[in-house]
Amino acid sequence: MDQRTIRQPLVYVVDDDAAVRQALEFALDLEGFSVETFESGEALLLRDTPAGPGCLVLDERLPGISGLDTLRQLRARAVDLPAILITTHPGPVLRAAAQRAGVRILEKPLLGETLAVAIYEAVSSSEPNT
Question: What is the mean pLDDT of residues 5-16?
Answer without folding.
Answer: 82
